Amino acid sequence: MDEPIKVIAQNRRARHEYHILETFEAGLALHGTEVKSLRMGKASLPESYARVENGEVFLLNAHIDEYEQGNRFNHDPTRRRKLLLHRREINRLIGRVEERGLTLVPLRMYFRRGKAKVELALARGKKTHDKREAIARREAEREMAAAMKRQRRTMNAE
Questions:
Q1: Cα dihedral angle (88, 107, 51, 82), rounded to 10 degrees?
Q2: Alpha helices in the chain (DSSP H)
Q3: Are residues 52 and 112 in the same domain?
Q4: Count of CA atoms in the C-beta half-sphere (13 A) of 118
């Protein structure tokens, strides 16, 4: 049975801007006030990305608002945060990112079993024509669905 997931933030633009090749679940190394702020749902991912440095993976530009009651112990909202992955996953990411010029993009941030997690995607940037193709395909599917609905209505009316 799947345990419940409480989604905190999503990066909706990522699926539009990138071809998603593979996804990983990574833990987040956080400060206390960051966890409290995340529990309140105060996070944003659209500008963020991940980078491999010295055999470790870091999440950069992810914005977690300061905790309102945090006083002087508050955190920097856009500090770099270490992602917790297994060594073989990190080695695999290092190989894929360096060899093929792929990017690490966070798709969503959520809580699973009380732990903050990030769904990280290995992605390749889309070209402009790919984005146009995807939009055209979505519009065509929408038009087909509307036509089918009209057809069913006329069949039921008779």
A1: -70
A2: 12-17, 32-39, 87-100, 128-157
A3: yes
A4: 30
Residues 64 and 77: beta-carbon distance below 8 Å: yes
Query: Phi-psi bin for 96: left (phi > 0), alpha (psi -120 to 50), beta?
Result: alpha
The pTM of this model reads: 0.74
H helices of 28-116, where? Answer: 32-39, 87-100
Q: Which residue has the tokens 């699973």?
A: 112
Regarding whether 107 and 65 lie in a shared domain, the answer is yes
Tokens of 106: 């966070």
pLDDT tens digit string along 7-62? 898 998 888 888 899 999 999 998 888 888 888 888 889 889 999 999 899 999 98
Answer yes or no: do 26 and 12 share one domain: yes
